[in-house]
Amino acid sequence: MADEFRFISHLHLGLLTALTLACIFSAANHTTSRRKPRRENLPVDLSAWREFYEDDICIYNAAWNEFVPLLSRHGLALWESGPGFHSQPGGLPQPDNYLFLSANKVNINIRVNRFLVHNGLNNIARTTCGIKRDCVLRILTAGGQGVTVLRLLRRLSQPPESLFANNHILPLIDEIIFDDIVIGVFPRLLLDLDDALLPSNGNSVEDSLHMILQALEGITYLHDNRIAHRDLFLDNFVVEWLPESMDERSTVTRPRVYIIDFESAIEFPEDSLAHERLCSGVPVPPRKIYRRQIPAELESDEPYNPFQLDIWQFGLDIHEYLYPTGLSEIDQLWLDLIAPGPGDRPTAHEALLRLDGYLRKTPPSSLHFSKRQMVQQTNNI
Questions:
Q1: How far is CA 48 from CA 55, 63, 153, in A?
Q2: Are 137 and 81 a contacting pair, CB within 8 Å?
Q3: What pLDDT, on a 0 to 100 scale, did the predictor assign at position 201?
């Protein structure tokens, strides 16, 4: 009886082994039979990648579909694409410590299952192996462009830099390489900071100030490492979730804020002197097609301090969303961030200390009001 049992067990194990090997060989043959992307069908450089989405969604889809077999080998599947946004019909992802949902359930499915596309550099995919998570894909290098930024992202996304609590870089978690093209893989978060600060999202002024405080901590970290971002508008910050404390006290924790999109960033050598750390021209040339607002020092091609540009860009959006607050110290800080003279603007560290000092001494209850109430208070003064 024992011998018969051992025979059946060995037979069962042998069948499982044979089936496993058959699956492996089948998958290998299937994978190797897939064609590689055809470089001639892809945009030549980052500039071309950036622009073509606005021309034709079909061209965008055709280019990214060239990568489908390559992405599949990396365990990634593109979302379904449509005009203006991509959609994911596969349900919610699993937790990955980056994507969180607010306790307020309104429109959660819309936020999670849709991804807005702003240019041809970006796409989104879901993992097909292991944890089911969503990842943002971005073309980091093409045609010789982007190599410096890729090196910067690699450094800040690896230990020890990636472990520092004050490093707010959204980390590069994987790279997919084809020819001269490197596709960066990043965690997905649901909200940009400019979206999070909208009055319709139910955040108090205290909620907003703490998110801005984190953003300033992240900017300070970059500047301390001699890195100027040069595109520090609020849509290049992402937030884990909405506090929404004006609607309901759903959680006592605060969402983490991350900095993204380093395409225009510049890193200066460690042995460079402060007065030597200058740039010229708009962050994304040529000037005639640059769409962002610029401060006075960028109206010519004279060299300028890019760290002071970062402060102005950040302050411009803050001023638009949260000025006036009726809080004199805060309103003055917002005005100082966008001072016409670059030298009159605070450094990121100075702004961080001013805002942190204010929040430390101010009772939280006095900041528990919404932007709508803020406007009403200001009008009544």
A1: 11, 11, 22
A2: no
A3: 83
